[in-house]
Specification:
The protein is mostly helical. Helices cover about 80% and strands about 0% of the residues.
């Protein structure tokens, strides 16, 4: 089951530049996994999947080097800060807030599918975007793609370069967060990490190819609806 989840989540992430962490975290929270353990597990698995995905996008020429450079360091700082804060906060009280955050990310993904923006290359105000996106990603167990990729796409950046660049920086975001989680929590639930990582690594090489073939709008609608349903379910259980 975890291999299948990892494969599907990484395939969508490779094609859209978002939704691996959001989808996997929503499923883990729905299964009763504490927020800190959920985020740590997803980020540990993503270290493998995002590394392969970044290499694939580089091979297909989908990475904007200037955008990559401007996002990288702020994103790593945001990931370290978010991971530390999540470990320090009580999991039971945090769970409904994380579910609400993931619900918002689902709405962001869904709304982006119905917005048309002029095409242009974005190079300004990337450092704050990288920091906030990685901070929210580490705390929520996902959200780097929905926040950063959606912002760049909404500002008119080219779809292919946005997906490739965001996926490349995501490797360093997940690696930074995983190091903090490993130091503070240790490595728990390794079977889940292995399943997610294996499925994601199998799917990652297809992401760079799929981004140039698939129509993004139907996939964004499907992923947005899935995340919304999963988040509402988790939120209902937490509050009920």
């Amino acid at each position: 089951m975890y291999v299948a989840i990892g494969f599907a989540a990484q395939l969508v992430d490779g094609a859209l530049g978002m939704a691996y962490g959001v989808t996997a975290s929503s499923l883990l929270l729905g299964a009763g996994v504490p927020p800190a353990v959920s985020s740590a597990t997803v980020h540990a698995a993503e270290c493998f999947t995002t590394g392969v995905s970044a290499a694939s996008h580089r091979a297909f020429g989908n990475i904007d080097r200037e955008q990559f450079r401007r996002l990288l360091v702020p994103a790593m700082l945001g990931a370290a800060t978010g991971a530390y804060l999540l470990v320090m906060l009580p999991g039971d009280l945090l769970k409904p807030w994380i579910a609400a955050y993931l619900l918002l990310m689902g709405v962001v993904i869904l709304s982006k599918a119905f917005r048309e923006c002029p095409s242009r290359r974005v190079t300004r105000r990337l450092a704050p975007l990288g920091f906030v996106g990685a901070l929210a990603d580490a705390i929520g167990g996902g959200g780097w793609g929905p926040i950063v990729a959606s912002n760049l796409l909404a500002r008119g950046n080219a779809f292919r370069m946005t997906v490739g660049t965001v996926n490349a920086v995501e490797f360093f975001v997940t690696l930074t967060a995983s190091v903090v989680f490993l130091v503070t929590l240790g490595l728990a639930n390794w079977q889940v990490v292995a399943g997610l990582a294996l499925g994601g690594m199998l799917a990652a090489p297809f992401g760079g190819w799929l981004v140039s073939r698939v129509r993004p709008r139907p996939m964004q609608v499907a992923v947005g609806l899935l995340v919304i349903v999963l988040s509402v379910r988790t939120l209902w259980q937490s509050l009920g």
